[in-house]
Each structure stands twice: as C-alpha cells, then as structure tokens.
Amino acid sequence: MGAKTGLLIYADGEVPGLLRQVKATDLLRTSEMMRRLYPGWEIEQLSGSSLGGGVYPPKDTAYAASRPGVEIVCDQRVMIDFPSQLPEHLVAASAGRRLVLHAMHSVVDWLAFAVWEDGRLVRSLSLSPDSGIIENIGEPLPFELPYWAGDRPADIVPWPDEDEEPYPLPFHPLDLGEDALRALCGFVQEGRPEPDDIDAYSIDLHGFHVRDPHGPDPAEEEAKLRRIMETMGPPRFHTLGPDGSLIERDGM
CB under 8 Å to 214, separation ≥6 — which residues? Predict the structure, then answer.
C-alpha cells in the first residue's frame, strides 16, 4: 500500500494519550458522529477495519470510531492540498477540542498535516517535490525543526541512466510525515516503531459507505473510467538489462 493516510482526529486533549485508552467503540455513537460530519449524505454500514489497516480507505468508504474524549475518521476526502480549506462544518465540529488532520501519499511524495485548537488553525503544512510548498501556515512544531534545519536531508537514489539532480525539497515529505504521525497521533505507518508507539492495528474502526447525494453518479463515473481504459493501448513490460538500462519485453 505504501505510506498513505487520510485521517481526522477530534480529541479533548493530546491525541496519543487518548488513543492509548481506546478499546471497544460503540457503533451507535459512531453512526451518530458520521451523520453529524456528513450531513445529508448517504451512509451505509460496511465491514470495519483497524486504524493501522484502514487509515487510507477505498474511495467512498470511511472508517471511524467514536468514544468519549476522542473521535477518529479515515476518509480519502480529507486528503486536500490546502488543509486550511477543510470544509467549515468539519472544523466547527472541533469547538472546544483539538483537531488533527494527517494526509500523505507515497506515489507523489505528498504530505499535508494541520492542527486546530478550539476551531482555530495553529499549524498547516502541505508540500510535495512536484509542487513545492503548497501551504505553510503557523510556526513549525517541535518535531519539524530538524527537517527545516537541514539535519534530515532527503536520501534519494536516482534511476539507472538518470542524471542525479538535487531533491527539490530540503527533506523527504514522507520522512517528515511519519514523524508528524507519531508526534500528533502516537503511531507510525511505515517508519521504524519505537517502544512507546501505539499499536494502531489494535484500535478497531467501524466501516461506512459514504456518498454525497449531490456528487457524481457512481455509474457515470464507472462508465467514464471504462471509456478511458478503452483508449489505452496494451500494457508494456520492461526489465533491467545487464548495464542497468530498461529493455522492453513481451507479456509478463
């Protein structure tokens, strides 16, 4: 799966300490939270997952849990380039609480995270090597400082036959992403676990199919995808030659 997250956490204090207390979560309470956060949307219960396995759910699926003190929502729809533009009603739901957003995607080395306190944005960062720094609001948090100071430079190995060029950012977003996930939420996805890290796979989440009634029709979206695939040529397969060059080959 790679390092991918689409995560919102509402908490009455520091998230890691509260997540350590999460055991069983109530389906009714979680369903009520989902209706608050997705007003007017079509919500249908599905099989659940864990925080470790469900932090990047399939499209139109959300994994969630609600208990006193902390609420968790995993949904691709919170993976936005500008965290400051998180829908207003989602921010408003954090009144009197802390809200943490964490989103990253390993395919494009993109990271975004943000923290609100009582509905006020105190820190937001979004960046990728292709787009550079997309959003940078507020003072860097302590776990960020080594990266901005140049103590955690990106270690990128170029592809064969490619000229090595400097990485366009002073550090690798996914490295910072794992440290942000640990500092803000208490666990990591693909980084090396530490003794105090939370076992995210021990936190169960309920599953929901969530669809915006005003959004694109699923059948139309599927038909559009089929039309695109029909215009594509057959797949091409390559292997590395003895000198490191790419050689096209037939079939698998």
Answer: none
- The answer to whether the CB of 137 falls within 8 A of the CB of 122 is no
pLDDT at site 176: 97
pLDDT tens profile 58-84: 999 999 999 999 999 999 999 999 999
C-alpha to C-alpha distance for 208 and 42, rounded to whole angstroms? 10
Give the pLDDT confidence score for residue 213 in this predicted structure.
86
pTM of the model: 0.83
Contact 130, 151 (CB under 8 A): no
d(CA 150, CA 158): 21
Q: How far apart are CA 43 and CA 208, in angstroms?
A: 6
Q: How far apart (Å, rounded) are the C-alpha atoms in residues 251 and 249?
A: 7
Express each pLDDT in 137-172 by its tens digit.
999 999 999 999 999 998 765 555 556 677 889 999
Could you give the CA distance from residue 237 to residue 145 in angstroms, rounded to a whole number?
43
What gap in Å lies between CA 249 and CA 237, rounded to an integer? 6
